[in-house]
Write a structure and sequence with these properties.
Layout (H helix, E strand, L loop, with lengths): L1 H22 L10 E5 L3 E3 L4 E11 L12 E6 L4 E2 L7 E4 L5 E2 L6 E5 L2 E5 L12 E9 L5 E8 L8 E8 L4 E5 L3 E3 L2 E3 L3 E5 L9 E6 L4 E3 L8 E5 L6 E5 L9 E7 L8 E5 L2 E4 L6 E8 L7 E8 L4 E5 L3 E4 L11 E5 L10 E5 L4 E12 L9 E2 L11 E5 L9 E10 L5 E9 L2 E12 L2 E5 L3 E4 L5 E3 L2 E5 L8 E2 L7 E2 L1 E5 L4 E3 L4 E6 L3 E2 L4 E2 L5 E8 L6 E5 L1 E5 L6 E8 L8 H4 L25 E11 L10 E4 L4 E4 L2 E4 L5 E3 L2 E5 H7 L7 E4 L4 E6 L2 E6 L4 E4 L2 E4 L5 E3 L3 E5 H7 L4 E4 L4 E4 L1
Length: 751
């Protein structure tokens, strides 16, 4: 226990000893208490001699008595750069008001080309106030390059050490740019040329500068010395700008002279306002001014203008994709029509914008025109009224005044016919310009449809399979639950699949959403004529969704031609601008009222968004379909598809029913001989046609269709010479045929 207590005591004593040492001041070491800064970073040439900046070393306000007489610190320049004693004009120490001057050889000493030592004088150390040391960084660049720094070495003083950049030595004398490229006609003003000195002192002494235009261009009569301006530290100039004789107005070259002042502390700039005239034979295109000088201004070439012919340039900020069939979110990006030359467009004339006839302009946003077109009013429809969605064309009446070449800017709200896609091209004409075209947007379908495969569909065959159909939104919310174009009255949204005339749904398909979060109601159904499947939309999705229609079966009657069977996909949930949707709630009669057939603003006569080929209609093989057969009572001769044939037993009427020989009834109904099977054991006959199996028994008035008994008015029978006779109508209808009776001619037609 005693040993543990001893160790603990020793540990405590060592800790106290360490803390005591930390609290004892370190003799002879001064704390850094100044705030240092340079006044600027100056761009200079490699031959520069003069004051570049000032450095200040300021006592901290928390320690105002830290600068004391006799403290010495050192200022060191970047190697190669020299101190220039003559340029150290200002060197002081003391309070901000009334500081004492520092004297070379007494208070500061140039110890080497790039080192100065400063000794704080008693006169500059004022008790109770914040003292500031200000020192000019007067230097000789001495042919060096790059950043120029000054390093503060505290030695044993209370100033803060550090290195500070105060100048940059740059190569080259000047840089030249055109601040803009202007379009001009035979005469005009190009973009301002700016010639900047790269460093202070890069240009010195008398200067001669030549500006040369391309062939067949000359300086305009308006061009003079007033169009050449000196700025920055070139002023006040020793000699003003003067254009030398034999150059300038009427000549290809212009030479001017000037002399900047000798001593400068900032860079200078020359601004040139180029007034240009095109001569006969001048080429359209860029106008480049060549700058040259035998003195300090560096050679350069700058494009200041474009020489253009009369006309306008039309453009669109971006070609946006707009959804067909919609009345919202169908606004183009900004369209610009700019004059190449001022007053190209003729005052009072109409500039006409014509879009395809499957597009209507429903609105526009108008940006105030510029230049000489500033007074031009917003577009109107061709008839002179406000844009209202009834036309694909509108006019802009030109109000051309004074000023530079003008610019028109606007966006268009469009309604696009539901079944149209592709580029929307605007034709711009009138007001004195040649007609030109511009693609302002691209129309895309609201949905796309696809099918797994296209089946062959045979004429006259019942309930034939169609592959699964998929309807996918190209954009989210393309399929909507309600339709409300312009008023508070709404109608529910439906997706419809419409078959062509001559084709019907054999049963209601199954409908489901397989992708996305669109929801549909379970009340989807067929119209009374079985040609349209109507799918009510419950709620629109927040991402693009897909509707799958499966279990589709169709029947094609004999009137349908061979070729493609296309289903039309549309409905109020997809197509907003179909005019029949407008009947009763947009610009027409009240809901439920009849007779509103007006095509309202933005509407079209198209309710289909997309067509999809779902089948290929083909003529069935002979064993499947025999066409039209005509029989006459009491005559063995008959016609089949217009060809006369003969039976061995003539048709007869018994109990008001027509009886015919078994084989000829079956053939007329489209059953091949190989699918007619007689069983003498039970005296039955089986007929097979497609997916139908029909069985009859001699003397039995019930027939079986796929095993299901169906009653007949009469029963089959056998007559001499051993022929099986069947009731024509019952058997033909059981096999899917139509039977027509003509009492006048006592004839029966089976088709």
């Amino acid at each position: 226990m005693k040993l543990r207590k001893s160790r603990k005591l020793i540990s405590i004593l060592l800790t106290l000893s360490f803390l005591a040492c930390m609290l004892v001041p370190m003799a002879g070491v001064a704390s850094a208490q100044s705030v240092n800064a340079v006044s600027r970073v100056l761009a200079i040439s490699d031959s520069y001699v003069g004051p570049a900046a000032q450095i200040t070393l300021k006592e901290s306000s928390d320690f105002p008595n830290q600068f004391t007489a006799g403290q010495t610190f050192r200022l060191t320049l970047t190697p190669g750069v020299k101190w220039d004693a003559a340029s150290i004009v200002t060197a002081t120490m003391g309070p901000a008001t009334g500081p004492a001057a520092l004297t070379l050889g007494t208070d500061y000493f140039i110890r080497s080309d790039n080192t100065v030592e400063v000794v704080m004088p008693a006169a500059g150390c004022t008790a109770g106030t914040v003292d500031i040391i200000t020192f000019d960084l007067g230097i000789d660049a001495n042919g060096t390059s790059g950043d120029v720094t000054v390093t503060v070495d505290p030695i044993d003083s209370t100033v803060t050490g550090g290195t500070y950049t105060f100048a940059m030595i740059k190569g080259g004398k000047t840089t030249a740019v055109a601040e803009s490229v202007e379009k001009i006609g035979q005469t005009g003003t190009g973009g301002i040329i700016r010639i900047d000195e790269t460093a202070v002192g890069a240009i010195s002494g008398a200067q001669t500068v030549t500006l040369k235009l391309p062939s067949n261009f000359q300086w305009d009569a308006a061009m003079g010395a007033a169009d050449i301006t000196l700025a920055g530290d070139f002023l006040p100039a020793v000699a003003p700008v003067a254009i030398t004789a034999g150059t300038g107005a009427g000549f290809q070259s212009l030479t001017f002279t000037f002399t900047p002042k000798a001593v400068r502390t900032a860079r200078g700039t020359i601004y040139i306002n180029p007034q240009i005239k095109a001569k006969s034979g001048a080429a359209y295109g860029d106008i480049e001014v060549s700058i040259s000088s035998p003195n300090n201004v560096d050679d350069a070439d700058v494009v200041v203008a474009q020489y253009v012919d009369w006309g306008v340039t039309s453009s669109v900020k971006s070609v946006k994709e707009l959804t067909s069939g919609k009345l919202a979110d169908t606004t183009t990006d900004t369209i610009k029509i700019e004059e190449n030359i001022a007053r190209t467009l003729i005052n009072g004339r109409n500039l006409t914008i014509t879009l395809p006839d499957w597009v209507k302009v429903t609105g526009r946003s108008w940006t105030a025109p510029t230049g000489d077109l500033a007074a031009t009013a917003a577009p109107t429809v061709a008839a002179g009224g406000a844009i209202d969605g009834t036309s694909n064309e509108f006019d802009i009446v030109m109000a051309v005044g004074a000023g530079s070449a003008g610019k028109l800017q606007f966006k268009l709200d469009l309604s696009i016919e539901a079944n149209k896609t592709g580029d929307i091209e605007a034709v711009i004409s009138g007001a004195g310009i040649e007609k030109q075209t511009l693609v302002i947007a691209t129309a895309v379908a609201p949905v796309e449809a696809k099918i797994d495969n296209v089946n062959e569909i045979k004429l006259g065959v019942q309930a034939q399979d169609v592959a699964d159909i998929y309807i996918t939104e190209n954009i989210k919310k393309a399929i909507q639950s309600t339709h409300n174009a312009t008023t508070a009255l709404t109608r529910p949204g439906y997706v419809t699949l419409t078959l062509p005339a001559g084709v019907k749904f054999a049963a209601t398909p199954k409908v489901e959403v397989t992708e996305g979060n669109l929801t549909i109601k379970d009340e989807y159904k067929l119209t009374t004529d079985d040609t349209v499947l109507s799918i009510p939309v419950d709620s629109q999705g927040t991402k693009a969704s897909t509707i799958k229609v499966s279990g589709v079966k169709v029947t094609v009657d004999r009137t349908y031609p061979e070729g493609a069977i296309n289903v039309k996909i549309g409905g109020s949930g997809i197509v907003e601008n179909f005019y029949t949707l407008g009947a009763g709630y947009r610009g027409g009669a009240a809901l439920g009222a009849a007779g509103n057939t007006d095509v309202d603003a933005g509407e079209f006569l198209t309710g289909t968004a997309v067509k999809l080929k779902v089948g290929e209609c083909v003529t069935p093989a002979p064993q499947d379909y025999k066409g039209i057969s005509v029989f006459k009572i009491g005559e063995a001769a008959f016609t089949q598809n217009g060809i006369e044939k003969t039976m061995d037993v003539a048709p007869y009427i018994k109990n008001d029913r027509t009886f015919m020989p078994l084989r000829f009834v079956a053939n007329a109904a489209g059953v091949a001989d190989s699918n007619i099977m007689w069983n003498p054991v039970d005296q039955s006959v089986v007929l097979i046609k497609g997916d139908r199996v029909v069985k009859l028994v001699i003397g039995n008035s019930n027939l079986l269709i796929n095993g299901i008994a169906m009653p007949m008015d009469v029963a089959p029978e056998i007559v001499d010479p051993g022929r099986t006779m069947m009731p024509l109508r019952a058997v033909a209808q059981a096999l899917g045929c139509e039977v027509l009776w003509d009492a006048d001619t006592q004839s029966v037609t089976v088709q």
